[in-house]
Design a protein that fits this description.
Elements: H1 16-57, H2 76-79, H3 81-84, E1 99-102, E2 108-109, E3 130-135, E4 141-148, E5 154-160, H4 162-197, H5 199-214, H6 228-281, H7 287-315, E6 324-327, H8 328-342, E7 347-352, E8 356-359, H9 361-378, E9 384-390, E10 393-397, H10 430-440, E11 444-448, E12 457-461
Parallel strand pairs: 7-9
Antiparallel strand pairs: 1-2, 1-5, 3-4, 4-5, 6-8, 9-10, 10-12, 11-12
Helix pairs in contact: 1-4, 6-7, 8-9, 9-10
């Protein structure tokens, strides 16, 4: 099922997708503005460089040169006609556009109809070809080349920069529009992509909020893909599944425990009520019957104590177990010593090859002891309980009636007891605890065919590790 609910406007502020779209827009804006600025300045530099090259290569018209064949620089007398030109529409006027003679005496000569530049005192003091920005008397911006003539006069040649400025202005306008459109498109695209990419994340968030609000672990989240969001969704689903299974196991454990405790509690209460009525009524119970009732109460109290301990052990989380290097032979020896002290009338045949595993030594010892106690309980007195172990495995075999093959898998369920063993003391949790502990250590446990064809043989397999010592 999928949960949907409306969030408040405050919760929608600065959503992750909005931050991604905003960040994308800022990055794109920075990139576009940087490229636009570089483009504008590069174009300006190239246009001005071309204009400077044109001015530097601009030849002085031959009419301004000295006599043909002479290599002497132009003489002032040869350039005085600039001041005497009276025909602005003459054939030479096309060569006289943007040219002016700055005399050493402070005067200047410009062809008629030409808008002269505004000279500055430094212009007449140049000693080498010089370029500078300036403007004409009418205010038109120009680029000026100053060429000293060697006698104190300076020849000024200029070209207007209005066309260049107009080109740069148009280019700037275009770049501004492109920046605006690019940033807008980047923001919209980023928002759409972020919304699409984060849709699984939003579903996951809504599912998590729904579970937190309703405590409904049955809710699943629909997340696909192999990216980080998909992995997070699958991990979240696995987590809720594990929690759901843990809750189910706990509920089943409580239900099974309540069912199993009902009968012994009734028996215990009956015996207690019998003693209480005897004391209140003043009618004494015969001594032999009273002793029997007291023995039953003592046995039932012991069974309850064992049952509570087994339930606590069964309810333990696997994460509570230690993760140390464990010598399996030491674990088996300790368990055998404890079992032999409880059952001196049984023979324990031990053949163990030393090996190590990683886990909780106390829990593993309790596991082996449970198997030995079961073997002693169901095997006749004087029989042999065989323990065999090698790297990665351990078996405990007895010579009792055995477990029918069709019931071997049920033997590790909680509170399961073989039909022929229901009259014997016990809760039916021993093998369940064994299975639970072995699984927590990453191993498996199962009933296998006994080596001598009769009895019960339980095999445990655990991960073996090299001896680090």
């Amino acid at each position: 099922m999928r949960s949907r609910y409306r969030r408040s406007p405050r919760a929608r502020r600065l959503l992750l997708r909005s931050r991604i779209a905003l960040t994308t827009a800022c990055i794109v804006a920075t990139a576009i503005m940087s490229i636009s600025a570089v483009t504008w300045f590069a174009t300006r530099y190239n246009l001005r460089a071309q204009l400077d090259q044109t001015l530097l290569r601009q030849p002085i018209p031959r009419v301004f040169q000295a006599t043909e064949g002479s290599r002497k620089p132009p003489q002032p007398a040869e350039l005085t006609f600039l001041c005497d030109t009276t025909d602005p529409a003459g054939a030479m006027l096309q060569f006289l556009q943007g040219i002016e003679l700055l005399r050493a005496d402070g005067s200047s000569c410009t062809p008629p109809g030409i808008d002269p530049v505004r000279a500055i005192p430094e212009d007449r003091a140049v000693t080498a070809v010089t370029l500078r920005d300036g403007e004409t008397e009418s205010g038109e911006p120009v680029r000026i080349t100053l060429r000293p003539l060697g006698n104190g006069d300076v020849l000024a040649i200029w070209r207007g920069t209005t066309a260049i400025d107009d080109t740069l202005t148009g280019l700037a306008n275009i770049l501004v529009v492109l920046c605006f459109l690019g940033v807008t498109a980047a923001a919209i695209t980023g928002l759409l992509l972020a919304r699409r990419s984060l849709a699984p994340m939003e579903r996951l968030t809504m599912t998590a909020e729904h579970i937190a609000r309703t405590d409904d672990l049955e809710t699943t989240v629909e997340v696909t893909g192999q990216d980080e969001v998909g992995r997070l969704g699958r991990a979240f689903t696995a987590m809720t599944s594990a929690l759901r299974e843990s809750r189910t196991r706990q509920h089943q454990l409580v239900t099974d425990a309540a069912h199993e405790l009902r009968t012994p509690l009734t028996s215990l209460r009956t015996n207690v009520d019998l003693l209480v009525r005897s004391e209140r009524s003043g009618r004494a119970i015969p001594a032999d019957r009273r002793a029997t009732v007291l023995d039953r109460l003592q046995a039932q109290a012991g069974e309850f104590s064992d049952l509570i301990g087994e339930l606590v052990e069964l309810a333990r989380d696997g994460t509570e177990l230690a993760r140390d290097e464990v010598r399996v032979r030491t674990v088996i020896d300790r368990a055998v010593r404890r079992a032999s002290s409880r059952a001196p009338d049984h023979v324990f045949d031990i053949v163990v090859t030393p090996w190590c595993t990683v886990g909780d030594a106390v829990a593993l010892e309790r596991t082996v002891l449970n198997l030995l106690d079961n073997a002693v309980k169901f095997a006749p007195a004087g029989s042999v309980v065989a323990v065999r172990s090698g790297p990665g495995w351990l078996t405990v075999a007895d010579q009792g009636p055995g477990i029918p093959e069709q019931h071997r898998e049920q033997a590790f369920e909680r509170f399961w007891r073989a039909p022929g063993a229901r009259a014997l003391p016990g809760s039916g949790l021993g093998l369940a605890i064994v299975a639970n502990t072995v699984a927590a250590h990453g191993g498996t446990v199962r009933c296998v065919d006994p080596p001598q064809g009769r009895g019960t043989c339980v095999r445990i397999e655990l991960p073996a590790v090299p001896d680090l010592e």
